[in-house]
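User: Run a structure prediction on this.
Assistant: Running it now.
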Amino acid sequence: MKRLGCWLMAVLLAGCAPAVAQGLRVRLWSQHPPAAAQLTAAPTLELRRCAGCAVTTGGEFRAVARGNTVEAGTLRGARLLVRGRYTLTVEGHAVPLAGELEITAREGALQLTVELPLEEYVAAVLASEAGTMRSAEALKAMAVVARTYAVHFRGRHAAGGYDLCDSTHCQVMRPSLVAEKFREAAQATQGELLWHRGTTAAAYYHKDCGGTAERSGEELLGPGAAVEYLTQHGDPFCQRHGGFTWQSTLRKADVAGALRAAGIRAPKTVNAIAVIERTGSGRVRRLQVRGEFTAVVDEESFHRAMGMSLGWSSVRSALYEIQDQGERVVLHGRGEGHGVGLCQNGAEQMGEEGHGYTEILAFYYPHTRLGVTAQGLPWSRMKGERFDLMTTDPERDSRAMRLGETALREAEEHSGVRLEERVTLRIYPTVAAFRDATGEPGWVAASTSGNTIRLQPLETLQRTRTLNVVLRHEFLHLLVDSRARTGAPRWLREGLVLWLSGERAEGEERMSAAAIERALTAPRSQPELRAAYAAANARVARLAGRYGKAAVMSWLSMGVPVGVDAN
């Protein structure tokens, strides 16, 4: 059973409840923000200007951008929030939604941001990015990949107030296209992610690798960006699937115009285009464009320029040869997409040949591990006098043995209880690894589960000068819980740990015991949880002053006397 112990990084009390999986904030119509949108619901939806504002209900609203202001019915403001089950319609395209929708406006265009549960997001991505896949196992593999990609790159649009967009910049997502087979694939792999050394993998994927996968994400991450699970390798499955070949004829004048339109220095009159460098997989890395002067253009810039001006089908991959035909060049290519990570055509073939989704993932992402929580960390065990230390860097973290022994002695002195069982201190190498493995938010410095105290990196804790306090706090949780019988109230356990540790919360005892218990068990907000911890601390301090420390400690095993809860 998971104990409730945890300690916060920035503030003393901000909530130690287990983290709840949160949804993803996704920007809809991110490439072409509309000026207006229709909202319809059966029977009604809720509309408000802020989370705590008055609610306006109705079955239909039209939201319109007026400069940087949103209007919907009688409501007008910089931001409107929509809740309920509803359909969002833009220019005749209807999208059914159930997550909270935030509507803002910028220069006469609506900014539509919806919060979706992760698995609903995955199903919507499958409907768009893997809509033609038939193999159930290939779809499961794609579900894991889409989920991992979302978690790994979550927050790439944090500056704009959302996590991911709905375009190819992140992942194309179309909730209106979700069919049952996509939901089944998401549910069959619910929560599963690809991990590499304790962090989520950069799970790139593409349509067709042309028979050869690209090495280490060079196309996306830049030359020399080595990622050992994104390797260059032959793909016989893609080849057996039939492979995809393409041909594109481009006027040299159009190429010149497209390059200049993209801000690339290029001659006005293009006489010749030639490949001058390729990657190890044979993909084009750099091209030479000759005219009144010679320009060297990297393939990614060339690809983007052609796509923006001439259409994204003009250059489908970087696996191509160039044939000069006077005023035109013809590109003869194979494959579709950047060639990094999972090849969808190859995965489909593997599924049709009877390979399971775990085999598909192992083929396309070697050196990764599949799991719901962080996998692949190289743990080493160090044995101390009274506890074990699990670390990925024994030399760096060995000082935790001495600090832990001191913290345990102090906790025993403060509580009057001796720790009888052997415990484990597990120190995570990064904040991300701690968060992913424990499910705690990043601002929680440590948490205790069973007989294991789980810590953020020592450098992080020492930088905030909280390491000694954190260790003592978590040992006190172990000691208090070792005395507590099943059903001992949380307000008593949490309040005792805070009081015994000498931590003083900012706040007063303004909540009843029952109200504190409800807030600690199922908090409705972080401020409510913070207030509950402060109240538990103050309550135990008052009761210890009245009845004595020994009496209050005895309530852990004997129960709180009748009448005390009501005090």
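The mean pLDDT is 88.
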